Amino acid sequence: MAVLAAEDATRLFVARSRWRWEEIVFWLVAASSYFLFPGHLVLITQALIAGLFSMSLDILLGYAGIASMGHAAFFGLGAYTAGILAKMGYGDPILDLLAAAVLAGGFGALCSLLVARLHGIGMLMVTLGIGLSCYELANRWRDMTGGDDGLQGMVVKPIFGIFAFDFDGHVAFIYSFVVIFILYLFARRLVNSPFGLALLGIRENLRRVPALGIGVRAQLMLAFTIAASIAGVAGALLAESTQFIALEVLGFDRSISVLIMLVLGGIGNLVGGMIGAMVFTVARDELAALDPVYWNFWMGLILCAIVLSGSGGIVGLLRRIERRFGGTAR
Amino acid sequence: MVVSLVNVLVNGAAYGMLLFLMAGGLSVTMGLMGFANLAHGSLAMLGGYVLATLMNHYDVSFLPALLAATIATAFAGAIVERTVFRRLYGGAELDQVLLTIGVVSMTVAAATYVWGTNPTSVKIPAWLDGRLQFGNFDFGVYRLFLLIVGGALTAGLFFGIDRTNFGAKIRAAVDNRRMTVSCGIDVKRLFALAFAIGSALAGLGGGLAVGLVGLDPTFGVKYLVFLLMVVVVGGLGSIRGTLVAAIALGICDVTGKYYVPDAGAFILYAVVVVMLLWRPRGLFGR
Amino acid sequence: MSEQLALETRGLNRSFGALRVAQDIAFRLPRGARHALIGPNGAGKTTLINLLTGALPPSSGTVLLEGHDITAMPAEARVRRGLVRTFQVNTLFPHLSPLEATALAIARRHGLCLNPLRALKHCSAVISEARDLLGRFDFGADAARPTRELPYGRQRLLEIALALAAEPKVLLLDEPAAGVPEGESDEIFAALSLLPRDIAVLFIEHDMDVVFRFAERITVMNAGQILREGTPDEIADDAEVREVYLGEDGDV
After folding, report:
1. N or C: less crowded end of chain A, CB within 10 Å?
2. Is A94's Cβ below 8 Å from some Cβ in B?
């Protein structure tokens, strides 16, 4: 009987959940940007929020293998929940955040029922349809959402009654950073849990999973609920930090750009979404301001290049370099 | 009352015919090669711009320009297929989606660069302009033209698919690719030709669309959603399905916008989602 | 007397339009059985497995597991009740290691798969169970390598190991030796003979060596129906069975 040694077995699972250097570097840089780039806090906050949004999609895409072209629906739902509550006078930011998480999560659970039976193109289409429907709904329901003028008049109260949101974005940055970091830690635990392993199983071989006694529908429902919830929190953070919601939070553009951010950074490793979002957001701010045509063209080209090369985005590239130099990256 | 209903239906059917022309090729490539080509709308856009440029800047008349648009798009499609798309056959759907989105992005940028963001239009030739009277009803000539051209092409397509050798090979490959390969049929060339024909149809559709709905650099993106809906609801690889779905969605859209303008495109999306849940493989899909 | 039967079907039928792939199947598998299912290609053997596991719903008839009617149960529920299968073609998780795959199967048994807050590295009971199970199949250090890097025979063993991780009462093996090169098939044989005696085992096989080595009873299927059932000797002597297998290799 050749048995794997106990330490080796445990080591396998420990290694999978160890903090990678790119994660540590990213979070250190993100944290220190408060001091390094004090004039750009608003932009960096938006990049971090986009990162949280990408990470939530990664749970579905990178781990469960579910491609969604309508993920912005959850983001937007979270944003409008927080926004409308704040406008109606219930402006406590943390409570609004929780409300956004609950509503978006609930909607996610509902969507999982619709999506569970489909794969491939059919799934892409239904998710697209859901995203577009939500957009249309928000567009038409002007009384609630302000339609394409956007939602204005949010009154966001100070956090814990003490820290009021300031114009320069200091409070918004710290608030968002803390929330996002906590959710990042939660996501790390999730992907290294039995639940995360089951999601990987679904991605790796859908046919095998029920043969192990695992109910795919239940797994996906939980995955959708959590991913949608986190996306909703991201939307709420955006609403609370900018105190304005544009209709395009629900738009096709946003669903597609989050996919691009994720592919850019690397699918299936959580930090990829954060890195991709940071690079994309900062680059877009710099380049799109110069010339939107320029931006569209080069972003399209880079996207094609990434897909054709199959290199797994920025994180994939980093891991490849690591392996070349004798690292033990997996 | 009845007059306006009939008019709306005819307009819807004409619009649907246009969608069919643009989407027909997409159904074949998605059903045949399993390739999710989101850049298909951009091919139609190219057809539109070729037509517009020839008519507006080179004084070419309508029909020759239409022919040129069709051929040019066929070529463009063939080139892109051979150089780029072919590499992702059999790959993950998401990869194909992302790749083709990248291509769409580039084409939007290129179109904006060359033709500017303002809408482009063409002057419909006199013999297609105006309205025809049939008793109490009157119809736009251009729309009737669309119906006739669409109908003729549909008949031609069905004939081609059902009665020719080429059509038989395509049907075989859609049904069972591996078996077709082991029958010694050069599937790669089959795909390349099918893609070129699909692109030609898209170009034709795009060229015809300019006179009906106008043209601007976002044309490919705007209509992509409709094209995808038509293809998926109709069933991948089924020309019949694409036709039925296109006419149905065209009528739904025009009727909806006429009678319930407030609901907007919402009805359409809801219909599509419901359809897909009822028949996940589309109306005539396998 | 169905309490003594691990698995039973009554009047099981399945048709696709005019095509009847399973006709009136009345099949009985006692506890602790070592039962082979043989028949020419297209006889309906894998279809029967699919009907038993719930991958394919029947047109009519019932399936009973230890006396309980499971005909309406989805596949994963049947697995949880102890009806487990392996696949004819390796259906594994290419990028996961055998250890991770087995841990997943065991974690399900411990009810952990919907828990996003438990760290895998801390699930020591699950990990050590997975180690032991794979050790019984002599995986050694291979247990930690990605499945797709392992030789086909090893992967075939993993198929069986994953099935055992579910602690089955009934084990359906779909051609366990299929595709395994000559030099590696001994390991498969060894694994089969080590299966716990209280599990009822039904295996499809074309390799008559394996069949006559392990089967205590044999069922012969042809054209969607059960043709014969009996001991290996009875089947070997049966003229009709030989006719059905005319042209097949092996000493039937």
Report:
1. N
2. no
DSSP class of residue C20 equals E
| Biggest alpha carbon–alpha carbon distance for chain B | 59
Which CATH number covers residue A257? Answer: 1.10.3470
A4 in a domain, yes or no?
no
Domain count along chain B:
1
Q: Which domain CATH number covers B196?
A: 1.10.3470
Which residues contact residue A67 at a Cβ distance below 8 angstroms, ignoring those fewer than 6 apart? A61, A123, A124, A127, B93, B94, B97
Domain count across chain A:
1
> Quick one: which of B268, B207, B218, B244 has its CA closest to B62?
B207
Q: Which of B276, B283, B286 should we substitute to test contact with A (largest number of A Cβ atoms within 10 Å)?
A: B276
Which of B26, B32, B98, B267 to mutate: most A Cβ within 10 Å? B98
pTM above 0.80, yes or no: yes
List of chain A residues whose C-beta atoms are within 8 Å of the C-beta of residue B262: 140
Range of the domain at A86: 20-326
Whether the CB-CB separation of C32 and C197 falls below 8 Å is answered with yes
With H, G, I as helix, E, B as strand and everything else as coil, classify residue C57: coil
Determine the residue of chain A that is closest to C191 in CA distance: A1
Interchain contact, C92 vs A17, CB within 8 Å: no
Of the candidates B19, B12, B8, the residue with the CA atom closest to the CA atom of residue B229: B19
Set of chain C residues whose Cβ sits within 8 Å of the Cβ of A192: 119-121
pLDDT tens-place values along chain C, 252 residues long: 445 789 999 999 999 888 888 888 999 999 999 999 999 888 889 899 999 999 999 999 999 999 899 999 999 999 999 999 999 999 999 999 999 999 999 999 999 999 999 999 999 999 999 999 999 888 988 999 999 999 988 999 999 999 999 999 999 999 988 888 877 777 888 888 888 889 999 999 888 888 888 899 999 998 888 988 999 988 888 888 888 876 455 454
> Distance (Å, rounded) from C-alpha B185 to C-alpha B189?
9
Domain assignment of residue A310, yes or no:
yes
Q: Is A113 near chain B, with CB under 8 Å?
A: no
